[in-house]
Design goal:
It is built from 18 helices and 19 strands. It has helices at about 5, 15-25, 30-50, 60-75, 90-100, 130-145, 185-190, 240-255, 280-285, 300-315, 325, 330-335, 345-355, 365-375, 410-425, 425-445, 450-455, 460-465; strands spanning about 10, 55-60, 80-85, 105, 115-120, 145-150, 175, 180, 195-200, 210, 230-235, 260, 275, 290-295, 320, 340-345, 380, 385-390, 395. Helix 8 (about 240-255) packs across helix 15. The longest helix has 20 residues, at about 30-50. It is elongated.
Length: about 475
Amino acid sequence: MPDNARLRQILTVAQMQAAEQALIDAGTSVEELMQRAGKGAAEWVWRISGGRPVTVLCGPGNNGGDGYVIATEIMRRGGEARVIAPLPPKTDAARDAAFGFDGEVLGKSGEIRGDVFVDCLFGSGLSRPLSETFRRLVAGLQAHHVHSVAIDVPSGVDANSGNWPVELAAFDCTIALGAWKRAHWLGEAAARSGTKRLVEIGVADQGCRETLSPRPMLATPQWDAHKYRRGLVAVAGGAMPGAAVLAARSAMGAGAGYVKLFSEVAGPVPADLVHDVAPLPVALSGSRIAAVLIGPGLGRDEAARARLADALSSGRPIVLDADALVLLDNDLLEGVDTSRMVITPHEGELAKLCETFGIEGADKRERAIALHERTGATVLAKGPDTLLTHAGGVTYFPAGASWLSVAGSGDVLAGIVASRLAAHGDPVRAASEGVWLHHEAARQAGVAFSASDLAQSVACAYAAFL
């Protein structure tokens, strides 16, 4: 695995512990690993503090030991650091780190106020909720400091699920040690952990199947490109033409050379969008179609189901969204090659699909994985913590703007994904590029935008990845 890919691997708690043990077995001491982690984290804390006083909350384990190293390094650089240690160190490495810190150590916080609070109470290995005493301690230090930084994961957060304790306020920054954990990109923790940074300590490729999506590199058309070579997207509309037009407009800005709207329902369309009113089987028979999108504005009646069946039987790479996900079932998938299919459910649509296909799962991640395994399709489970499940595993993404929670936002995303699928034919790559473009379009659209504003920003978003 290339180094940049290795640094994008996302590990469970057990995988992280195994990775650290492998380093120890190869001759790196626990103390050396702690120094690497603590000094690497201190670099980020130093930048955040800007020389202002730092308060480090140290727990009894090795996460607390990292905290003592951070405090020591801050003082070595000429900064001011104090440690709050409600419990004494209980591991040899943590005791050594505590012995190396010659600054102020307090047994409890009282009403300590300051600029930067660093949470090293418990790391990713905590397998139980925080006690009431510790919850009050962390919450009080957050409230009495201007900035708060979590080391590895915020104390009390489940590193595997991303579940967030209700009493815990958001952090400004979370510094992952050694490798990313699911909680950095999944669940409420993904949104409330603030800016995320990774400290390298030498963890090798663990062969995991869960990774953070890399920022894509898009390209301008080749010198000899023409509209068909860049990809023809067919957007199959239905009873409500507005959503399909919105998706088509988004596809036009995401790199495809040609976008056609196949809809027998009359309605206003942009002058540069070709509107074909032929029956869908006829319209889809064209040999130059590179990808099909169906679902936005499709409807849910028998006529809509028939159109979905026609789209699926066309044999084209296809994106299913919105109403198509409500209609989809085993009968419609019979004999369909799903290896080039992307489905893009939000939470409610994911629940409906799981009901249809008899899938149970404790959380969004498990349900999305099971849906991929059951259908063979690439599953883009969208939302504030979007994730992609596919034959290669699970891909996670940095969170997009919360302003994306607007009607029609999913239609825009579906159009972008279909456009990228038409451009190169790779469903996993298309879905990944779609998420990044969607997020960037939201950034460029500003605040309180409409879905049409978002669609208008897609072309500028594309330019940001050139």
